[in-house]
Write a sequence for this structure.
């Protein structure tokens, strides 16, 4: 007799699921290769203006949207900006906030900590990159009657989705950086987002420009980041 491919738990269907596993040797080689590939990723600030098919961006966002989330609420929206006019509007607003941050809001300690990265209030990549992905978190949902429904672990969930987004961008051979102009409310206004959305992260996506440099930073050592008990 054919076995059912699901069981019922409190009346809810739970499907049979089995993740493919590998031999120890395969596992060692796959995990090492994955690390070496991930370790090549860098935050890049120099973009080419070359266009990218929208299907690539869609695949990247589909990947991000597979992230685990509190109670599976998937409390995120990914706004994709291709329009040159809107990119310009975002650049001007971001640079205005960044000028205030660099000149008045950031502490001396913070500015000192950023010196080696060579960042400043100018953000040309916000216009040059063919796409901007603006990630919004949704602390709650509103239905058609105006009732509010809470989401859970919203920052954790959206942070996880952003990690997967960054990895998917790297996998496609494209580059990005996590830009966090602060405060970010201008993004909600420019993109006319609903009341239940808050800007979380802005990622320009594009090809790396031919002439591009990244700061000489080091990853922490395994002794620093892993403790075996
Ligand atoms: N948001 C500013 C400043 C900045 C802050 C941190 I923390 C960085 O790691 C890098 C930059 C900017 O984008 O320039």
């Amino acid at each position: 007799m054919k076995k059912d491919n699901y069981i019922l738990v409190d009346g809810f269907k739970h499907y049979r699921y089995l993740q493919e596993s590998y031999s120890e040797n395969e596992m060692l080689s796959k995990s090492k290769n994955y690390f070496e590939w991930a370790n090549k990723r860098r935050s890049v600030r120099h973009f080419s203006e070359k266009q990218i098919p929208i299907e690539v961006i869609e695949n990247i966002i589909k990947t991000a949207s597979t992230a685990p989330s509190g109670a599976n609420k998937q409390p995120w929206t990914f706004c994709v900006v291709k329009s040159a006019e809107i990119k310009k509007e975002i650049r001007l607003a971001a640079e205005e906030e960044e000028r205030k941050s660099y000149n008045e809001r950031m502490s001396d300690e913070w500015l000192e900590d950023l010196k080696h990265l060579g960042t400043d209030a100018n953000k040309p990549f916000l216009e040059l990159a063919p796409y901007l992905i603006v990630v919004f978190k949704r602390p709650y949902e509103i239905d058609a009657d105006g009732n509010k429904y809470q989401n859970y672990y919203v920052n954790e969930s959206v942070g996880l989705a952003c990690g997967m987004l960054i990895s998917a961008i790297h996998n496609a051979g494209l580059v990005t950086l996590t830009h966090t102009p602060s405060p970010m409310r201008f993004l909600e206004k420019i993109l006319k987002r609903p009341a239940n959305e808050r800007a979380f992260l802005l990622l320009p996506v594009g090809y790396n420009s031919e002439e591009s440099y990244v700061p000489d930073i080091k990853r922490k050592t395994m002794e620093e980041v892993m403790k075996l008990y």
